[in-house]
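FAQ: What does the model actually see?

It sees only this:
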Amino acid sequence: MPLAIKKLPVFLCAAVLAAGSEPAKPIEPRVPKLNSVFPQGAQPGAKLRVEVLGEFIDRAQTVIFLDPAVHGDVVESTYTRLALDFTTTPDAPLGPHYFRVVTPRGASNVLLFRIGDQPHILEKEPNSTFEQAQEVTIPATINGRLDRDGDFDFYRFHADKGQSWIFDLRAARNGNGLDAALILADAKGRRLRHSEDVFIWDPFIQYTFEEAGDYYAIVQPTHRHNDPNFAYQLDIRTAPHVETISPISMPPGATLEATVFGAGLTGSGKLWFEAPGFSADVLEMRGTTARVRIQAPADAREGPVELAISTPGGRSNPATLLIDRTPIHSGGAEIHAPVSINGVARYRQPERFAFDVKAGDTLVFEVRAQRFGSPVDSLVRIVDTLSNQVAGNDDYNFPGSHFSKDSYLSHEFKEGGRFFVEIRNLWKTTGEDFPYQLLVHPPQPRFELELEMDSRYLYAGAPASVKVKVLRQDGYKEPVRVEVKDLPPGVTADPLQIPGDKEEGELVFHVAAGAKPGTYGNIRVMAAGTPRPAWKSVRIASGGGEGETFVTVDQATLAVIEKPQFSLEAAVETVNLVRGGTAEFQVAISRADGFSTPVHFFFENLPAGVTAREATGLPGAANVTIQLTAAKDARPGRFSRIAILGRADDGQVQQAPHVTIALD
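And it is asked to produce this:
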């Protein structure tokens, strides 16, 4: 008898198997899906081969990086794996870079590839025990994976007495689903430190060694099951880590003395800025803080500017300094709008500022903190002279910001008189490293454009549309004329003007009948009245875990794709199989109008010792039975990248979403 399998709910299975009895519907294409890249990064000036795992990624033809610092070429392409050659420029900026691929199936999602300044090395298996520990020379960035159940990664290194090292594991911050723990142990295997979930899900340790000797860094999974996509970078370095700067803002042309908060801020250092024209001195390094003096150029662009501290051991991660021309509060308990207030938010100790308004006045109150690296969770209230609350806000949903803890109010005062604005921190932990900027000003009508998606597939000879949202702020009511730049060959866009009383419009694209699948372009959507192109906030996550990161992209990829004639969907997510046994499950075939040819099934990534009986979906059939058999000596385990593929007689191949085989 075939073994039982883990099935979808009965009503879902029934719906899948009954699909053939319903009128044919347009087949939704399965666009390329990238799950993970390994290794996750390299140094500037490097050439390397990377492996990308995913689905629906056969016939990949182009690698698109969103900036010119990294170039990629396709070396090999299967349905679930890519081999790519990456070249990083000698002056490639440190930090994350983003890429996608284009195939005849469309443009994929984006993944993150990080440029770092430490020597990069690869994990070497086996290294899952103390005895197998991989010896590494530090400092280093170790690119590793926890890609199978039972996998641990042990690294042995030497540290001298009195040396202080930072152990910084990046997985979630690289857009990977891995939730790992990091353990530091001595030569006898005794645990010195343990860390989890410091930055999102990523662990972080700073440790000063009391004795010279060999030590171990151990990367431990916290998941019930590992995943082939679980990957990470482990930095072992003396370069510092920075978190925030206080004050968090300054005007152009000003000089500011500030404190940078972080770890490993020792010895000598210099400040680095992403924008030109800034000059600065590091006045003192104090371990967890650094005193700095910054001179901003008079023509500095308003908005966030990244800064970092460079030391002989390398450059830190960046912190954010806000450049703002709003007049700075000169001190005291009274303010006059427009005004920018730099302060430190404290728990149960609200700062209160008095201001006067006339009846009918409207004022905007905006906190800038958590969105720009400060740990503040702000609460803002407006109260009258009797301390009655007039308005308040805790967490405002700023467009493009995820999990925002910053506050925002726009309030029209029905009565004139004196009022107070209060700001406090909801975190119980309080310190000088909780800076904020509070802006108070009359409304400043303006707008931004947000895209519905960061990629769109197109069919030759057919129209397609993408929604564009107008984010109207502070009462902006003017019509917005939208323009598209850098369209793909053979693609045109209709003019679009979004009326002043509308919040969105549709860009309509037209594709020439002769456009070939794989034709693509990276478009920018612009509008007069805002210098910023339309943007989309994109989630990057892989491996089925909880780790994730986000990036805001200001371009979208349009790609012409082949039209699918059928699609496949397995009625199971997991197939339970024992050695020497068999298991059966159904795969539904959805067919386009007029498509009734046979579909012949084959597989990619079946584990060794597991075979599939030949299966063909007969002409017009809506489903097929798949039978798997495991040899008695097959290796047990979980295998989660099983691709079910069907080839039609005309040569078109379609792929079902992957299934997992649990082999016991």
